[in-house]
Amino acid sequence: MEFLFTLFFDAIRGAARPRKQFRRRKLAELREVMTDPAQALAERTVPIGPVRHYVLGAFALGLLCLPGFAIAFGEPEGAANGQGKKTEGERLGGLICLLAGFGIASLAIYLSRGGSMVLHAGGVELRGGANVVFCPWALFNTTGQSFDAGSGDWLLPVAPRALPFVMWHRRGVFTANGVRVQTKQISFPSFDQAVLANFYEADLGAISHVLYEIGRKLGPKLPDAEAVSREGGQLESDHVHNSLLTHGTDGWVTIPLTKIHLPASCSTCLAPTTTSFDLNLYKPGHNKKNWVIVRVPFCQFCRKLAKQWQYRFAFRGVCIGLLIVGAIGLTIDFGKPDDVAGWLCLGIPFVLASGLFGLRIGEKRTAPARFRRFSPKKGTISLWFRNSEYTDLVVANVERTHATRSHSGNGGG
């Protein structure tokens, strides 16, 4: 029974996550646009349609309409003999239930509809209901790492200098610009990050690749500042200096993940290196294919020393396990040889488990870096480095990059 329930809910979950991919014709069109976006978008616009929950809609229609259908058209037992036939009132009630179920299912499908995206020469328009958000191509002319922020939404790095040119119109009326744009389609948790909602017919990883490819080719030039002024927007956002970087007194530093760039020196001995220690950050669902990897520089010499210390911890674990097994064994009166064999069958796995536990402790104690408070939605991560001098280098590097981007953002209007 438990297996059937699991299978049922897995089917519902799979129906709620429709398969999203570009159609072949749309994919060929986007490849053509990315080859020469200036010419292609000057001739036409390229729409990307909304996600459509066909399977989930059919399931909801069937589930909600089935009771009404059974009441309206079903016949009870004994109806063939002329007994227990339904009255007109009961059939009318069944029809009302059928229509109500159809209406509720249709409303649910309507509310779960996605939005559309339109690519044109000036930028990209995100449309959803009464909201239209315009993002210039300069917004995507930046470097960084985009990744799945959970629930299918994606966290994208954006160019701060182009942020004031992001315009939000609701029912054709200007509402806000810059980081004040907070809609279901797109929102800005900070001056250099955006959260793009999972509203479209294709995976957001593929869509973000298209946006950045076109943004690098069309984004160096900012839009006309007078257009923002005419709408009543602010060219210099008061949030542009907001940084998600925080440095605590306990050695932990919180860094925006989309803009993370660690110095290319060993995080333990500060020697130049090309090898790294990988921190695997998992998101809800624990799907290894969607893990975010932070590569912390870690030289071969320090890695070898760390391995030696890990083996020492494992040896200590084995020794402690032997002492515990031996001490308990001395208190037991073994009357038969079979008792000794049975005790060894229990003691050996315990000793091995103690060694593995010691190895695990050694891995944590010798790791060059640790993480906590990984927030996919905000795109931040708190890191701790064993060498505090390397922490200072990371903070200085992020602040230097932040100051450069803020200066370019203030002067971009």
Description:
By secondary structure, the chain is α+β, with helices and mostly antiparallel strands. The chain folds into 3 domains: about 1-50 and about 115-240, no CATH class; about 55-75 and about 85-110; about 245-405, no CATH class. About 45% of the residues lie in helices and about 20% in strands. It has 10 helices and 16 strands. The strands form 4 sheets. A 6-stranded antiparallel sheet has the order 1-2-3-4-7-8. Strands 5-6-10-9 form a 4-stranded antiparallel sheet, covered by helices on one side. Strands 11-12-16-15 form a 4-stranded antiparallel sheet, with helices on one face. The longest helix has about 30 residues, at about 300-330.
Describe the global form: flat
Head-to-tail CA distance between termini? 64 Å
| Total number of distinct structural domains | 3
Radius of gyration equals 30 Å
The count of β-strands is: 16
The strand order across the widest sheet is: 1-2-3-4-7-8
Q: Which sheet architecture does the biggest sheet show?
A: 6 strands, antiparallel
Instruction: List the secondary-structure elements in sequence, H or E.
Output: HHHEHHEEEEEEEEEHHEEEEHHEEH
Structural class: alpha+beta
- Helical stretch count? 10
Helix content: 40-55%
Low-confidence stretches: 1-10, 12-19, 237-241, 284-289, 406-413
Provide mean pLDDT, rounded: 75
- Bin the strand percentage: 15-25%
